[in-house]
């Protein structure tokens, strides 16, 4: 049948469709046509012609001269209607790329109704069914301004639900075998958990869609990284670009030149392959067997199972596979599609390393609660994306810091125990240690999201986060120099302001990151500046007393190091005046800052 309701009353229509859903062997012919708006109806697909009413003509934006359409023509007209959403929930491929033939599609039964993506006038397509559009059709639609993902991503909740069902039934089977559950109680328990399982599944689905939205928003900026990641998957995992509809290097170069990136369907495919690759890596190692990660497993199951069968959950035969899925989903959905890949490029990190660094960094800086606020606070998508993107700066820097400065592999529990409480205790005082410059920076950088609709308090907290990242160094310096962390932090931020290090770091952030080597060069300069500031802080502490104010400490230290400092200060002054902040200039600036450091040691005797 073909069902057309030109001007539906949503509540009435929903109630009637719900009635049909519960009616055995129902079809659209069972729909109460008295509930359909004027001019609409239910039409048989075997009819020779369908009369076009004024209401249908208006709804489908048909030419005035069209008085009848054959059923295939009507279906094509519906597909090409200028509407907000086209929802495909059926069987068959109805959209192809203009460059494809019907034979390429391989769905002969729908050749008569299939349309080309470049003719679509809809804004968004959702795929409740499988293969509603070809891969190339999806990409063409998105390149022309449409919005859609892939059938696999839009159907991911169904797959997740099936996985939960299987894993729960395996657990209950074991509980029945061990005598912990009577077989007669099984079905009632399953029914009791329906709503909570739905909530768990939707949580995963929503999280993945937040990731997709964020990835779409910065696809153009990430095209170089995506290019390298696809090549890595091709080499290491045997991913076939043509089969997976992923663009060639030449195509990605063209998009980069045009200021474009991967489309949403391409990002969805990349997301899937990244998750599969990371999961394979985790299953091949022993990280999932550690207590820090095994403790996550109960969170996969509904409350009644956690309360009654905690021990059985720990013995689940698929526990490693479940954990791998949980850990990878969490890291990719919050850290990003390229998170682990970039850590591999930048710090030589393995997948296990990336997971360890992610887990520790998130807990130390309480990022999860901040992400929850960003994702649940009502605001426009653009503002939400800007805020979440900003949090990734701290996540990335903290992860690299942990990989560089902690014994490897990172002991997740020990790392969290060492830094979390100290960072959180000092975090609230950071604005007081950088009063003027920090206020100016927050006003400048949070202005965009606030202007786009983000709440001011939340935006300022997010943009303050990057200024709290150095607290990791502060806590290490405090231990090494055996000084109070508050004293060290006050001096650290005073030195930062005194030498205008933040200005140099901001300039580094603006450098081109077009290829891997430019990215690594930027990182090297940034890390050199942070390392120098860390060493300067320790240097000043070794020559001053705890009772001195930060300003007194700096003044005394400068008075005893005039010759070394004067040359560096002169060079830095020239650089600041020139405003020529390219890589070469900033590399020289970082070297000048490094030259001010005396002989203080800041890497020894850090507690592990």
TrEMBL record:
This is NAD-glutamate dehydrogenase. One of its GO terms (biological process) is L-glutamate catabolic process. It comes from the Bacteria. Residues 259-594 form the NAD-specific glutamate dehydrogenase C-terminal domain. The lineage of its organism: Bacteria, Bacillati, Actinomycetota, Actinomycetes, Mycobacteriales. Pfam families: Bac_GDH_CD, GDH_C. Residues 1-212 form the NAD-glutamate dehydrogenase catalytic domain. GO terms for molecular function: glutamate dehydrogenase (NAD+) activity; L-aspartate:2-oxoglutarate aminotransferase activity.
């Amino acid at each position: 049948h073909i069902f057309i309701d030109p001007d539906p009353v949503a509540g009435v229509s929903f109630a009637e469709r719900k009635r049909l859903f519960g009616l055995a062997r129902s079809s659209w012919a069972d729909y109460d046509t008295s509930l359909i708006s004027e001019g609409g109806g239910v039409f048989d697909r075997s009819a020779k012609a369908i009369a076009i009413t004024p209401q249908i003509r208006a709804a489908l934006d048909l030419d005035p001269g069209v008085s009848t359409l054959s059923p295939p023509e009507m279906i094509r007209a519906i597909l090409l209607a200028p509407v907000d959403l086209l929802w495909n929930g059926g069987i068959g491929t109805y959209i192809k790329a203009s460059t494809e033939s019907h034979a390429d599609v391989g769905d002969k039964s729908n050749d008569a109704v299939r349309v080309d993506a470049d003719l679509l006038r809809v804004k968004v397509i959702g795929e409740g069914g499988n293969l509603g559009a070809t891969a190339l059709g999806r990409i063409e639609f998105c390149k022309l301004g449409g919005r859609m993902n892939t059938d696999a991503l839009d159907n991911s909740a169904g797959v997740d639900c099936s996985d939960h069902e299987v894993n729960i039934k395996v657990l209950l089977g074991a509980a029945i075998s061990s005598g912990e559950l009577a077989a007669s109680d099984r079905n009632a328990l399953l029914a009791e958990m329906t709503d909570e399982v739905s909530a768990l599944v939707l949580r995963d689905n929503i999280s993945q869609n937040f990731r997709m939205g964020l990835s779409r928003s910065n696809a153009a900026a990430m095209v170089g990284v995506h290019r390298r990641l696809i090549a890595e998957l091709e080499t290491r995992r045997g991913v076939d670009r043509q089969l997976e509809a992923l663009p060639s290097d030449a195509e990605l170069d063209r998009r980069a030149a045009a200021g474009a990136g991967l489309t949403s369907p391409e990002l969805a495919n990349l997301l899937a392959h990244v998750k599969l690759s990371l999961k394979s890596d985790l299953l091949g190692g022993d990280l999932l067997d550690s207590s820090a990660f095994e403790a996550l497993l109960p969170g996969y199951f509904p409350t009644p199972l956690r309360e009654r069968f905690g021990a059985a959950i720990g013995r689940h035969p698929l526990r490693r596979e479940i954990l791998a899925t949980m850990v990878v989903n969490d890291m990719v959905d919050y850290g990003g599609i390229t998170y682990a890949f970039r850590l591999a490029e930048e710090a030589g990190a393995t997948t296990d390393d990336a997971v360890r660094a992610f887990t520790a960094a998130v807990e130390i800086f309480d990022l999860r609660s901040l992400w929850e606020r960003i994702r649940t606070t009502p605001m426009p998508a653009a503002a939400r994306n800007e805020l979440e993107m900003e949090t990734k700066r701290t996540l990335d820097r903290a992860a690299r810091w942990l990989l560089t400065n902690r014994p490897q592999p990172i002991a997740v529990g020990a790392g969290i125990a060492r830094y979390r409480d100290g960072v959180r205790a000092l975090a609230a005082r950071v604005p007081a240690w950088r009063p003027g410059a920090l206020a100016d920076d927050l006003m400048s950088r949070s202005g965009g999201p606030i202007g786009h609709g983000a709440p001011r308090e939340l935006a300022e907290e997010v943009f303050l986060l990057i200024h709290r990242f150095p607290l990791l160094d502060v806590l290490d310096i405090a231990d090494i120099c055996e000084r109070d962390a508050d004293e060290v932090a006050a001096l650290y931020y005073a030195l930062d302001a005194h030498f205008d290090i933040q200005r140099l770091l901001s300039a580094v952030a603006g450098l081109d990151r077009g290829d891997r080597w430019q990215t690594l060069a930027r990182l090297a300069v940034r890390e050199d500046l942070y390392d120098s500031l860390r060493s300067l802080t320790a240097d000043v502490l070794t020559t001053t007393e705890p009772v001195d104010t930060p300003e007194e400490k700096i003044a005394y230290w400068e008075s005893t190091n005039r010759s070394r400092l004067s040359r560096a200060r002169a060079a830095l002054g020239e650089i600041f005046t020139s405003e020529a902040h390219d890589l070469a200039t900033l590399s020289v600036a970082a070297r000048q800052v490094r030259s001010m450091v005396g002989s203080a040691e800041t890497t020894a005797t850090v507690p592990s």
